[in-house]
Amino acid sequence: MTRQLPLPVELAPQADLADFIAGDNRQLLDLLQRIAADSNDEILFISGGPGSGKTHLLMGLCRRAEQQGRSCAYLPLDELRTLSPALLAGMEAMDILAVDGVQHIAGRDDWEEALFILFNLARDAGRSLVFSADRGPKQLALALPDLRSRLSWGSSYRLQPLDDTGLMELLQTQAQKRGLQLKPKVAQWLLRHCSRSPGNLLGILGRLDQKALAEKRHNLSLPFVQSCL
């Protein structure tokens, strides 16, 4: 199960490892699938820029683990940092801890200490720990050197950007899941005229979906897309 937190943290319905377009990140995706299924005592750190897919992967990990009958806690630190770090107490009981956005608690002594303690307890219990941030652990502005050291213990992956083929596949796959028709020439236009981060492109697709729903249409024609952006 996914651990319930004292605020409404839900896994995005589209966040599934099966929907992640791997590109040059296949090795990372394979490792996450193993962790979700049965691999214990893993430490993994994922870094990447905004919209590169970190949150998708961590949420997808938790969803896959839940499907496999394993317990997983998804911890979005950009949301949780406004609360007391005492909420981390007992989290080491979960099979997998997915800690998203470590950069958001850098310089917060109380949160750094709590995360350090949780790391040690989970490690001693043989749990798997997966972290994400916008940069590698050695580049994080953490005040607690021991926490930075712990975060560097395991495997570290930098998400590689998708090429045009991967981004086209992402757009068309997600459009199809929404019941929308997105022709290759329209997808190519989006790649030429919009920020190419997966997060941004999916955000645009979401807005187009809302517009299309309001107009009761399924075909995302080029004139329609241009009028919406």
From TrEMBL:
Q: Which Pfam families match?
A: Bac_DnaA, Hda_lid
Q: Which Gene3D superfamilies match?
A: 1.10.8.60, P-loop containing nucleotide triphosphate hydrolases
The signal peptide annotation in the UniProt record is: none
What residue ranges carry the coiled-coil annotation?
none
Its lineage reads: Bacteria, Pseudomonadati, Pseudomonadota, Gammaproteobacteria, Chromatiales
Which positions fall inside the Chromosomal replication initiator protein DnaA ATPAse domain?
A: 18-155
What is the top-level taxon of the source organism? Bacteria
Q: Which GO terms describe its biological process?
A: DNA replication initiation; negative regulation of DNA-templated DNA replication initiation
| Protein name in the entry | DnaA regulatory inactivator Hda
Could you tell me which species this protein originates from?
Answer: Thiolapillus brandeum
What gene does this protein come from?
A: hda
Domain Hda lid: from-to ranges: 165-229
